[in-house]
């Protein structure tokens, strides 16, 4: 049985066609004018039929990152929050530390699959990524590295194929 014929294909077909997303770039140096990774996320969402309900650039500090995620998770027009930046091992990379404590559920498959796919592209350096995902109540949250190549990989191969289905599942009570 192919993936198109699988029971999952039926669920995907019933998934939301347009999902409101919050995009957060974690950076001490980026602005909206030069935020290439945020631009890639917004462009790929549009191509997939989804929309950016809010976009932020926040300093690479735990409190502003957590505050931005909390604010977006509380919005009724945001079903998914996509963060880029701060997921490595450098001292300033604190995004997972700031956000993981907000998760009500972990989605470990995202980080595992992201590192597997990254390994095919960049080799053993993939293990340095702390990309992860989880839920904050009914809002899905994905943390991606800051590089545009990593964002494109995560969005095209993992997030966009599941976005509508995930949003529909999360909305159920």
From TrEMBL:
Pfam families: MoCF_biosynth
GO biological process: Mo-molybdopterin cofactor biosynthetic process
Domain of life, per lineage: Bacteria
UniProt KW Secreted keyword: no
This protein's pathway: Cofactor biosynthesis; molybdopterin biosynthesis
Keywords: Molybdenum cofactor biosynthesis
Keyword Nucleotide-binding: no
Annotated MoaB/Mog domain residues: 22-166
This protein's GO CC annotations: cytosol
Family membership noted in the UniProt record: Belongs to the MoaB/Mog family.
Function description: May be involved in the biosynthesis of molybdopterin.
NCBIfam families the UniProt entry points to: molyb_syn
Annotated protein name in UniProt: Molybdenum cofactor biosynthesis protein B
Record organism: Lacipirellula limnantheis
């Amino acid at each position: 049985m192919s993936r198109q014929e699988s029971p999952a294909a039926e669920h995907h077909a019933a998934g939301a066609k347009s999902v409101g997303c919050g995009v957060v770039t974690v950076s001490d140096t980026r602005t909206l004018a030069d935020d290439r990774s945020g631009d890639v996320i917004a462009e790929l969402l549009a191509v997939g039929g989804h929309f950016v309900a809010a976009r932020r650039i926040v300093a690479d500090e735990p409190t502003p990152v957590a505050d931005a995620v909390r604010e977006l998770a509380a919005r009724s027009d945001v079903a998914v929050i996509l963060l880029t930046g701060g997921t490595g091992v450098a001292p300033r990379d604190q995004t997972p530390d700031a956000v993981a404590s907000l998760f009500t559920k972990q989605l470990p498959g995202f980080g595992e699959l992201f590192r597997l796919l990254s390994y095919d592209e960049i080799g053993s350096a993939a293990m340095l990524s702390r990309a992860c995902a989880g839920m904050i109540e009914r809002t899905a949250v994905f943390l991606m590295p800051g590089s545009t190549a990593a964002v494109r990989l995560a969005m095209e191969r993992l997030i966009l194929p599941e976005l509508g289905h995930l949003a529909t599942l999360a909305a159920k009570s």
